[in-house]
Amino acid sequence: xxxxxxSTAGFCGSPQAVLQGSLQLGDLSSGRLSMAKANRMPFxxxxxxxxxxxxxxxxxxxxxxxxxxxxxxxxxxxxxxxxVQTVLAETKAPLVGTPGAFSxxxxxxxxxxxxxxxxxxxxxxxxxHYAIKLAESIPGLEVEYIDIDSLPLFNLDLVRHGKYPDxxxxxxxxxxxxxxxxxxxxxxxxxxxxxxxxxxxxxSMEPTVLGDKTAAIVSTGWDLGGSRSQYLxxxxxxxxxxxxxxxxxxxxxxxxxxxxxxxITDSDIEKEFRELLISLRNFTxxxxxxxxx
Length: 293
Fold this sequence. Notes:
InterPro entries: Flavoprotein-like_sf (IPR029039), FMN_Rdtase-like_dom (IPR005025), NAD(P)H-dep_reductase (IPR050712), PSII_PsbQ (IPR008797). By secondary structure, this protein is an alpha/beta fold.
């Protein structure tokens, strides 16, 4: 049966809709489910009330038949050990469109914070640590600092028998365990910094490390606020990184960005930084696959 063979990973409909018979099988060869179109018959001509009563009775019988057929397919799926079996238990799940529709509260979005400078006093490092602080007041968001300072220069000679240097493997594992990335990227000579490019080159060696990750950039620099380091978006194309489009945040470092207590001096920048993190959280939730039942 098509329904019995369907995987719940791609089944983004309400189980209540199944029980009500509003979901139906489309092309049997495709094994897909679709929403039934409303059957609206014209109400006209003599004996209108009688015709309407007959139409309603016909529709009720059709709906009952559809429900019985659907429940039969669901039962067949249960008997065959299909993942669809728990659909019947989720009779009050909300419709598709809300993250965590089947599992209740969505898991927090975990973001890897990567600074593009290896200087211990770098503004990019301060920005990542400040993002961690901001995330504490943003529901459903966690930011973790991931160090790239000790990564060796990208060199395939360092990969022995398919194994990476320990520090590289640790870095890959840390990034892989997150849902998205926040890059604090300084502009070096009209482009991204060499440590940051180096980290991306290592991470891109394994498709699952960066693949399908979401990302956002806060850039720093003179004059244009490091805008040319936002070319990082182009670098992310090959490893399948998806950057948010807005807001964009460019920070001019000609003036003091942080005070002595580590707080951002400009309230507008702090507001924009918070909005960027919220946008990254929301974008990540939208790109998450349908939760498994």
